[in-house]
Amino acid sequence: MNSSISTLNNMFGIPCSLRKSDIPESLPYFYSFGRQYYIVDMAGSSFLLVSLFEEEKFGAVAYKKQLGILMEKSGLNVAFSFPAITRKQRDALISQEIPFIALPDQIYLPFLGISLSDCFRAKAEVFTDRLTPAAQCLYLYFLYDVKNNIILKKQAAAALHFSRMTITRASAQLAALNLITEEKLGTEVHMRATAVGREYLDMAENVLINPVQKTVIVEQTEDLLLLPTAGETALSERSMLGFPKIPIKAMQKSSPDTESLKEVDPLWEEAGPLLQIELWKYDPQLFSRDNLVDPVSMMLSLQDIHDERLEGELEEYMEGLQW
After folding, report:
1. What is the pLDDT of residue 57?
2. Number of helices followed by number of strands (H, E) in the chain
3. Which residues of the chain have a pLDDT value below 70?
4. How far apart are CA 221 and CA 77, in angstroms?
5. Measured distance CA(295)–CA(309) in Å, rounded
6. How far apart are CA 141 and CA 287, in angstroms?
7. How far is the CA of 42 from the CAs of 14, 20, 21, 39, in angstroms?
8. Measured between alpha carbons, how far is 179 from 289 in angstroms, rounded to an integer?
9. CA gap 243, 233 in Å, rounded
10. Whose CA is closest to 71, among 33, 27, 6, 117?
């Protein structure tokens, strides 16, 4: 927010300062979720600045209602700070007389000053050091299913059970890494992988992530045995590697079923047959075949295990894959 204050200083030529503020009392939870509140002191008066997070879904009418409530609770003028804004959103806010800033180009503070521009901020910075779980899912979708065919974002969202916003962010990361190309035709965005098979896998080698967030040991149940087989057990099913003592299965860490998992410490507790459950950052069932997790995710989950025989069997299996 310091850059925001610097921009306001330069824009109006009036010194201003900013200090963190608590949320006004007796407000619903969503008024605080993901938001930051500040008091801006400028030109001998103060106003409450509400810094919004990027994923907020409210429209102009809802912000108008919130504006009135916040002004009443705080006793101050109120403005919303947007991380980015479109022309349509800007015009809607102005029509509702809702003070806002979307720096560096859009400032609408009727109680202080107005500076508007036809320039709108470009997309947010895309990080390219490692794929996000959603971006890795989209990448695997191209690798296994789509290959070099054209696909629409709405089709990918439906196939992966993601929101359109999640797919948009995932595709932006893949595009920044030159793993896909995007082309907007009308209202739809067409995506295509920039390679296929082994070449496509090699292109992403340095940015793929280990899907496993955590591993727990639990007692076997019929439901858990239906989960896709993962880790060393999955490699054993595909190679000459011996099976581990405790079979390994995979489950998405955000699945409601994880709440019923009861961890067991076999060194200290008596228990029946056991399972290791890998809790994944994305749904392992999306790309599983024959009740085995997909080969690339399996490979990534085993990369930190230093065992010469395992490494040899894994390398041989991956080299023999037919794309």
Report:
1. 74
2. 11, 13
3. 1-13, 55, 119-126
4. 59
5. 18
6. 8
7. 7, 15, 16, 10
8. 24
9. 6
10. 27
DSSP lists the bridge partners of residue 49 as 38, 79
Nearest to 279, CA basis, from 218, 237, 223: 218
Torsion of CA 220, 136, 146, 178, to 10 degrees: -160
CA dihedral 193, 198, 201, 206 (to 10 degrees): -130
Q: What is the pLDDT of residue 236?
A: 97
pTM for this entry: 0.62
Angle formed by the axes of helices 60-74 and 87-95, nearest 10°:
50
Name residue, tokens 């890795």: 136
What is the CB-side half-sphere exposure of residue 36 using CA atoms within 13 A?
A: 12
DSSP assignment letter at 37: E
The b/e string for 54-78 (b: 16+ C-beta within 10 A; e otherwise) is eebeeebeebbebbeebbebbebbb
Q: In what order do the strands lie in the sheet with 36-42?
A: 16-21, 36-42, 45-51, 77-81, 100-102, 106-109, 113-115
Determine the pLDDT at residue 230.
Answer: 98
Structure tokens at 16: 């201003």
- 146, 170, 201, 295, 308 from 179: Cα distances, Å: 13, 11, 10, 19, 32
